[in-house]
Structure formats: structure tokens, C-alpha cells
Design goal:
Chain lengths: 471, 498
């Protein structure tokens, strides 16, 4: 019975998305229905997934290579669950952020985005992964353009070009693999990647495409403007959810199809990740606009994910668990942070940090959300960010890579600088008590997400149990 | 969950819950806030008293929850933890009373008291941490919950002080994290144990020495060991109750307590001495003692003078730890309590001068003893105790430190102690002389109508009580449950092999 949940996890958000685009007045209800139903399905899957095993479902009972195979293991279930936990809160914030016609577009696009994301986590073959990846990219671009300002339109056009280029590179790689192996099913390809003719080229193309779509330094150029100029719930969805999918995919392909091949790959990814952590943290510190600061912080934090990912074939369990926990806690923390900063910007009418009015007095929950999310981003205990960083440190020490340890610690301190730059500006400044006050739910959504990142610090054990071993 | 597992959690909750609730109370809900604060503080006192009684009968209170494989969140009320917890519980209660009066009608009190409670929660957690990771967790929580208190006034100066504080403490936290992660990789455990858990592992000595210095420099930031002390004098811009908290109850104490934990319960003092790291710690403590006193001499701002005095006095604890031998250990540990009592008295009094008469500088204190006799008497007790005059508490600390140094054959430490006492006298006695014997420069502002004492009662009673404690801790040092008695129990039961 459990396997019937897999198609439902795609179909439910998809169906509510289509309804939301068609129906005029019920967007808020459909948004709630779609995200909460998705959460219920995800929770059911997480509860019923047998420990350390996979569940698979062949759509229409067609077997691979003809049919569509959906598979869920610990990693995909974990990610589906965390995404499903965050999405109702994003929807709650959105319901206060948009007027009616815009809310309808948001509801439709966001639910489509969720369907694509779930599909990506569940897809068992490379072509369906391409389809979901493309769907994810396109719905994300449309979301980024939703605010309609000229800056947002320019940024989302750039985003569109980047994501299409990334998809093309990925598709080219997949085509090479298909020509060599005659199959696209990941299980049928398992471990064969390095020996196939053109396998190395395919891997480079796929990796480059995914890194571009994942906005990993130095291919991050499109992310900061796109994320910083979108409306807050969209920024949060993009920064927290969208950029994680390509990295997840990279881990899975590399570990399953290529069996973690080539030590060089590990070294390159490690170096690129470390450079991203350091350089983009410095860029984040230099920003004057709060939303740009948060966007650059996303690129920096993606560097940690890449470093953990690079260590998975080298040390195994610690790096794998570190990757998953870092991903989940960054997801929650960044969603909360973007919503909170969005609240501040909405009250002020701009997002120049220097001119924020004494926010802490009027929006204590948003200020608290910034602080809590900041704790997780800095990797201070108790938080999911700390747990992830601890595992990453253990992995680096185990691999004997002292310089990685140094980068992780330096990255934490740099994160502290930009987080406290943000926090410092919520104190002090002129007081403007007459400014527009926000609906309470905008503040609570941000606070709950950031609080979730802290609670992740106490959920390390159950999370690891759900994750199981390295795929 | 058994009662013995519940008590440490209740001890944490007694300040955590009021703190969290206070954040959500409206700013003008003064009465509910005061009731919550005082209920929490009194509940904590009762819990601590009960646990002291239990531990002295051999009960053990512990609770743990797994965070990651091999890593637990672990709270344990061992005798050493209770020494620190009792200090902070008593002083938290008094500081809360003082702060309620001090901040009357000031803005942002909900935020202040919320973080104030979080700060004490973190301190209790630091004290009761059963392993290095839990210690790190609360240590960082302490950093974060103190920051809003330091920048409470929201002036550019306060924000600069806050930034300075963060730079120091977060770098310290990073060093501590690195040391902890490395130690875990080498030994596979982080659980504090009597006489340490490091001895017997096959880790090379150079790695252990590096780890030791990483850990100690991590906690040394909060303990204000020179050259890691730069944040402390700057943080004086915060309101007086915060200074009391920084210097006596929480932050500096947490750092000193960390040194105690790391030396005795991670490495074991004899093993650490074999590694050769105790000499470095002793040297650093001695330099800090003398340097802090010298800097204190030239400060005209009263709170800055007290701040440098803290830099100097807290290192007595580190010195006691660094000298191998039970007597010096007792001296260092008991000074953890005694310094807290004396320094909080001094800061309360400095706050009273500032709040009642607007006096901030030493040079303005001429004749203040006639206008505020009780406050000045309390100040005098604290100052004389710092100098080490019997029968004040400070004498007991110095006596044991001196005996311990002689026992270990470290005569240079006795010279440092004597020199520091002379310097203490040199920067405290002029204040007393001015306050009692110099004629006032002009007329004092008249007492407000209806005043029953020299200042508000809630401002006056806490320093008088702590001054009494300073005298009693010295006079009754040999009686059961005195700080000295408890420190002896800790040292004999936990630190040295019987």
C-alpha cells in the first residue's frame, strides 16, 4: 500500500495546482489544501517507509525501461518531508502577501513547483528527472517574475537563460549515457557510469548543468538578483527549495550511476565548495540591501552542501548525514530568514539595512526569526545547522583534510558577521510607529520556519534513522 | 522519568520558561512580568537548595537525550556544578530585584528581562553540562543571549561594544568547537569524568596540547584572560544590572568555570601537568592578575576600574587551577563564589551611585559616604574583601591559594598574590578614602519626598545582603554548606585520587 503514496505525492499538488489556476476565488483554500494534503502524504510515507529500505512504484504497472518508475528511499523521503513541512508556512505567508489575482497565480505556480519537486525526489530514471527538473526550473522562473517590477523581470529572464542552459547540458549528458547504455533507469545503470564510452564526458556535462542550476559558486551569477527582487514567499521558496534539488540529484547520480568515481571529482567539488563558502560570505558581508545579503548567504551555504557532498565517497556516513542535515536546516532557516527580512522590507518600504527603523520594537517576532535562523546559519548549537556542521567537521577530520576544517570554521565566523550585520540593524535607528503594520500570520510563518531550524537540532536522531545508509 | 532526571530539567526550566513567556508579554505588563521573574528565581533557589541537600547525601541527578550518534545532550548536577549553580541562583534572585527597580520606567523592559532569564538559563546549563558538547551548546547560548543586553541602550557606543563582544566570543566559540570536534575524533567520547577522560588514549602529546590550548583559549575569552580581555571594559556601556551579570553571575564566571571543567574533568589536573600545559596556564593567569590590577589603577571611570579589577580577580581562579595540589584547587574554586559575591556588591553600589546621584567617576565620589552610608559601607566591605582583608571572603581565597602555592613549591605565585593584593589596595583604598573622609564638593541633590532611605529600597537591599554574605562566607568558612566547605568536598571527591 505504501507504494501508492508515491504517485499521489506528485498528483495531489499537480491537481490542486491546475484547480488553482482555473478557479478565481478559492486560491487561498486550494493553497492550504494542496500544501497540507502534501504534508499528510509526506508524513504517511515517512512513517510507513520500512527502515533502511526502498519503496518503488511502476506507474501503470509498466516496468523499466518502458514505464515510469517512482522510487523512495530514506534520502528522498526525508527531503519530501522537510519540503512538505516548510510549504504550508510559505503558503500562509503568501496568503497575506498577495492580493487576489496575484495570489491565484502564486497558488497555481507554487503547487506546480511542489509537484515538480516531489517528482524530482521520487523519479527513478534520468529522463523523468529531466522532465521534473525542467518543470521545476520553469515554475521557479515564473514565480520569480511574479512581482512584475522591471528589476524582477530582468532577473528572471537571466534566471530563465541559466536554467535552460543547465537543462541542455544535463540533457546532453543523459543522451550520451543513453546511447552508450541503452537504458535510463538509475538502478539498471548503477555503477556502470565510469566504464561506459563517453561516461566521463556525460558526467562532466551533467555536473556542470546541475551546478549551474544549483547556483553553486562560480556559476551563481543569476541567483542573487533573481532571489532578491522576487516577492518574499517566492524568494523563500527559491532559496530554500529550488536550489537544493540539483545538488540532491548530483549526489544521487554520482553515488548510484558513477559509484562515487574519480577522486579528482571529489577534490574539485571540495575546492569549489570551499571557495564558494569564503568568497560569497565576503560578498554577503558587503551588501547594503538586506535581501541581497540573504541571497549571497544562500550561495555561501550551498558551498557547505557541496563540500559535504564531495566527502560522501571518501568517508561515507558522516558526510552523507552532514549533507542531509545541512540541507534540511538551511532549507528551514533560509525560508524563515527570507520571510522575516521580507516583513522588515515591507514595513519599511525598502530593504536598505541602514534605514531600517527600530524594528525590534514593532516586529519582535520577525527579529526573533532573524536571530533564530541566524543561529542555524552560523552553525551554533542547538540547531540543525550545528548538527550538520558537526558531522561535516567529523567527516573532514576523518578524511584528514585540515584545510576543510579551517574553511568550515572560517565560514561560520563570516556567517556570524553578516548575520549580526542584519541583527544589528534591527536594533536602533529612527522609530516610525505609524508605519503599516503587518498581518500577524506573516510574522508567525517566518518565526515558525526559523524555529524549525532550531528544532532540527533536537531531531538529529530521528532524521538519521529515516535517512538510513548512503544510497 | 524519575525524579532525579526531572530535577536538572526543572532547574533549567525555572528560568527558561519565564524568559520565553516574558518575550510575549506586552511592554506595560509590569506586574505579571515581575511575578514571573520572581517566581522563577525563587523556584530556582528552592530547587538548588533541595539538590544541594541531595548531593551531599550522595544522590545523583542526571538526564540525557541523544542528539547525534555518540553525542548526547546531557545535564548532570555533580558537586562542582552545584557550586556554580547555587552562586548564580542566589545572585540571579538579587539581581532581578535590583534590575526591576533600576530599570523602572526604562524602555524595552520585556526584551531585557527575557534575555536576562535566557542568560541565566545558559549559565545554569554551562554549570550542569555533563559533556563538552552540552557545555559548548550553553556556552554559545550565553554569548547570544548576552548580546542584546550589552546593546540594550541601542546607542552607537553600545552597538560598537556589542560588536566587539561578539568578535571576541564568537572566535572563542570557534576555537572551542574545533577543540571539541578534534577531541571527539581522538577519544570517541566527550563525557566529563572525575580526573578526566583523556589520560590513557593513544593520542600523540602534541595533539593533546593543541587541543588543550584551543579549548582553554575558547573559554579564556569569556574568562577575560589577557590578551583575550578586550571586550570586557568596553561592555561597561550596558546598564548596571547587566554589568553585575557579566562580571559576577554569568559570563566571566562561565569562562572561569570552563577552565575548571577542562582542566579537571577533561584532562585531569595531574595528567595536564604531565603534558606541561599547567605552567603556561599559570603564567597566563599571573600576567592577567598583574596586568588587570595595573590598568585598574589609572581608570577614573568607576565601572571601568571595576572591570579591570574583574580581569585581574577572575584569573585567581585560573591560577588556583593551574597550581597542582588540593589546597590551591580549593582556593581557586572558592574564589569562583567569593569573587562573584564581592564583585556584584561593588557593581550594585556603583549602579546606586549612578542612579541616585548621577556619579560615574571616582573623582566625583568625595564625601558620598555621608549621603549614602549603607551603600558606601557595602562598597567598603566588597573592596576590602577584594584586597583580602580578614574576615572577608576574599581572605579565605587568598589564604588557600597562598598555602597551595607553597605546598606545590611555587613561591613565585605567592609573590604574584602579594603584589596583586598591594595593587588592589592601591586602587580601592583611595576610593574608600574619598568616600568617607573627603568633604563633598557641593550639596547633594535633596532626597525625593517620601523617601525612606538613601535610595530606593530595592536598590539598597541587594548590595547590603551580598555584603553581608561576603562577611559571612569569610567568618563561617568552616561550617557545613559554606562555599569553602563545598569546594573542599568537590576537590576531595572529584579532582584528586583519594
Amino acid at each position: 500500500m505504501t507504494d501508492a503514496l508515491l504517485p499521489l505525492l506528485v498528483l495531489w499538488p499537480l491537481a490542486t495546482a491546475l484547480l488553482a489556476l482555473l478557479a478565481m476565488r478559492t486560491s487561498a483554500i486550494l493553497l492550504a489544501l494542496g500544501t497540507l494534503g502534501n504534508l499528510a502524504l509526506a508524513a504517511a510515507l515517512a512513517i510507513r517507509l520500512p527502515a533502511g529500505q526502498d519503496v518503488s512504484h511502476n506507474v501503470g504497472s509498466w516496468d523499466a525501461p518502458l514505464g515510469i518508475a517512482l522510487r523512495a528511499d530514506g534520502l528522498s523521503t526525508f527531503l519530501i518531508l522537510i519540503t512538505a513541512l516548510a510549504s504550508p508556512l510559505l503558503a500562509l505567508h503568501a496568503s497575506a502577501a498577495y492580493e487576489r489575482p496575484e495570489l491565484r497565480y502564486f497558488a497555481g505556480l507554487f503547487l506546480l513547483f511542489m509537484a515538480a519537486l516531489n517528482g524530482l525526489f521520487l523519479a527513478g530514471d534520468l529522463f523523468n528527472l529531466y522532465v521534473t527538473l525542467e518543470l521545476l526550473g520553469l515554475s521557479a522562473v515564473a514565480l520569480a517574475a511574479l512581482s512584475g517590477g522591471p528589476l524582477a523581470l530582468a532577473a528572471s529572464l537571466r534566471y530563465l537563460l541559466a536554467t535552460l542552459t543547465g537543462s541542455m547540458a544535463y540533457l546532453l549528458g543523459v543522451a550520451l549515457l543513453y546511447r552508450a547504455a541503452g537504458s535510463l533507469d538509475m538502478l539498471q545503470l548503477a555503477g556502470r557510469g565510469p566504464d561506459l564510452p563517453g561516461g566521463a564526458v556525460a558526467f562532466s556535462l551533467i555536473t556542470a548543468g546541475l551546478l549551474l542550476k544549483g547556483a553553486v559558486f562560480p556559476l551563481h551569477f543569476w541567483l542573487p538578483p533573481a532571489h532578491a527582487n522576487a516577492t518574499p514567499p517566492v524568494s523563500a521558496a527559491l532559496s530554500a527549495l529550488a536550489v537544493k534539488a540539483p545538488l540532491y540529484l548530483l549526489l544521487r547520480l554520482w553515488m548510484v550511476v558513477y559509484d562515487g568515481a574519480w577522486p579528482l571529482v571529489s577534490d574539485v567539488l571540495l575546492t569549489v565548495g570551499a571557495a564558494g563558502v569564503l568568497w560569497c560570505s565576503v560578498l554577503a558581508i558587503q551588501q547594503q540591501r538586506a535581501k541581497l545579503l540573504v541571497a549571497y548567504s544562500t550561495v555561501a551555504q550551498l558551498g557547505y552542501l557541496l563540500m559535504a557532498l564531495a566527502l560522501v565517497p571518501v568517508v561515507g556516513a558522516a558526510a552523507y548525514a552532514g549533507f542531509a542535515l545541512l540541507l534540511a536546516s538551511h532549507l528551514l532557516a533560509k525560508a524563515g530568514l527570507f520571510l522575516a527580512v521580507g516583513n522588515l522590507a515591507r514595513r519599511a518600504g525598502h530593504d536598505n539595512m541602514k534605514d531600517f527603523e527600530s524594528v525590534v520594537r514593532h516586529m519582535p517576532l520577525s527579529a526573533a526569526a532573524i536571530a533564530l535562523a541566524g543561529v542555524s546559519l552560523m552553525g551554533l548549537p542547538p540547531s540543525g545547522g550545528f548538527n550538520g556542521k558537526w558531522l561535516l567537521l567529523q567527516a573532514a577530520l576523518e578524511a584528514g583534510k585540515g584545510w576543510v576544517v579551517a574553511v568550515v570554521l572560517a565560514g561560520g565566523l563570516l556567517a556570524a558577521v553578516y548575520v549580526f550585520k542584519l541583527i544589528e540593524h534591527t536594533f536602533g535607528g529612527r522609530d516610525r510607529p505609524d508605519a503599516e503594520s503587518l498581518p500577524r500570520r506573516s510574522e508567525w510563518a517566518a518565526f515558525a520556519l526559523a524555529g524549525g531550524a532550531i528544532m532540527m537540532g533536537f531531531a538529529g536522531y530521528p532524521a538519521l534513522r529515516l535517512l538510513g545508509g548512503v544510497p | 522519568m524519575s525524579q532525579n532526571a526531572l530535577l536538572p530539567l526543572l532547574l533549567i526550566a525555572s528560568s527558561l520558561l519565564p524568559g520565553l513567556v516574558i518575550f510575549f508579554l506586552p511592554e506595560n505588563a509590569v506586574r505579571p512580568r515581575t511575578v514571573l521573574n520572581l517566581t522563577g528565581a525563587i523556584a530556582k533557589l528552592l530547587l538548588v537548595a533541595f539538590m544541594l541537600w541531595g548531593v551531599s547525601r550522595g544522590e545523583s541527578y542526571a538526564v540525557s537525550y541523544p542528539l547525534l550518534p555518540g553525542i548526547d545532550f546531557s545535564l548532570r548536577a555533580d558537586p562542582l556544578a552545584l557550586l556554580f549553580v547555587s552562586l548564580s541562583a542566589v545572585l540571579w534572585f538579587l539581581t532581578t530585584v535590583y534590575a526591576i527597580a533600576y530599570l523602572e520606567d526604562a524602555p524595552n523592559r520585556a526584551r531585557f528581562f527575557g534575555f536576562f532569564s535566557l542568560c541565566v538559563t545558559a549559565t545554569v546549563g554551562v554549570a550542569m553540562a555533563g559533556n563538552l558538547l552540552t557545555f559548548l551548546l550553553f556556552y554559545e547560548l550565553l554569548t547570544l543571549s548576552t548580546y542584546p543586553l550589552v546593546v540594550h541602550r541601542e546607542t552607537p557606543e553600545a552597538r560598537a561594544a556589542g560588536n566587539r563582544y561578539l568578535v571576541y566570543t564568537l572566535c572563542g566559540g570557534a576555537a572551542l568547537l574545533l577543540g571539541t570536534a578534534w577531541l571527539y575524533l581522538e577519544t570517541g567520547t566527550l563525557t566529563f569524568a572525575p580526573r578526566g577522560f583523556v589520560a590513557g588514549s593513544d593520542t600523540p602529546a602534541w595533539a593533546l596540547v593543541t587541543i588543550f590550548f584551543l579549548l582553554v583559549s575558547g573559554v579564556g575569552v569569556k574568562a577575560a584572560l589577557v590578551p583575550l580581555h578586550g571586550w570586557l571594559p568596553r561592555a561597561m556601556v550596558a546598564p548596571a544590572p547587566v554589568s553585575a551579570l557579566l562580571h559576577a553571575v554569568a559570563v566571566v564566571k562561565a569562562g572561569a568555570f570552563g577552565i575548571v571543567r577542562i582542566v579537571y574533568d577533561v584532562f585531569g589536573v595531574e595528567y595536564a601537568a604531565d603534558l606541561g600545559v599547567m605552567d603556561a596556564l599559570a603564567a597566563s593567569a599571573a600576567i592577567t592578575i598583574i596586568y588587570g590590577s595595573l590598568r585598574a589603577l589609572t581608570q577614573d571611570d568607576l565601572k571601568r576600574r571595576l572591570a579591570f579589577s574583574t580581569v585581574s580577580q577572575v584569573s585567581y581562579i585560573a591560577l588556583g587551577v593551574a597550581i597542582v595540589g588540593p589546597l590551591a584547587s580549593i582556593g581557586g574554586l572558592v574564589h569562583l563564589v567569593h569573587q562573584g559575591l564581592m564583585k556584584i556588591t561593588l557593581f550594585f553600589c556603583a549602579g546606586n551611585y549612578a542612579e541616585t546621584l548621577g556619579l560615574h567617576k571616582v573623582s566625583e565620589l568625595d564625601g558620598v559616604g555621608r549621603r549614602m552610608p549603607l551603600t558606601t559601607a557595602a562598597f567598603s566591605v566588597g573592596a576590602l574583601g577584594m584586597i583580602g582583608l580578614p574576615p572577608m571572603a576574599g581572605f579565605i581565597s587568598k589564604w588557600y591559594l597562598g598555602l597551595g602555592a607553597l605546598e606545590a613549591g611555587d613561591t613565585w605565585a605567592v609573590v604574584v598574590l602579594a603584589g596583586s593584593s598591594a595593587l588592589n589596595a592601591a586602587y580601592f583604598l583611595p576610593i574608600l578614602h574619598r568616600a568617607w573622609f573627603c568633604p563633598p564638593a557641593g550639596d547633594w541633590p535633596p532626597l525625593p519626598a517620601g523617601a525612606r532611605a538613601e535610595t530606593a529600597l530595592a536598590l539598597l537591599v541587594p548590595p547590603v545582603l551580598t555584603a553581608l554574605m561576603v562577611i559571612l562566607a569569610g567568618l563561617l568558612a568552616a561550617s557545613p554548606y559554606s562555599p569553602q566547605d563545598w569546594a573542599t568536598l568537590v576537590v576531595l571527591r572529584e579532582f584528586y585520587a583519594p
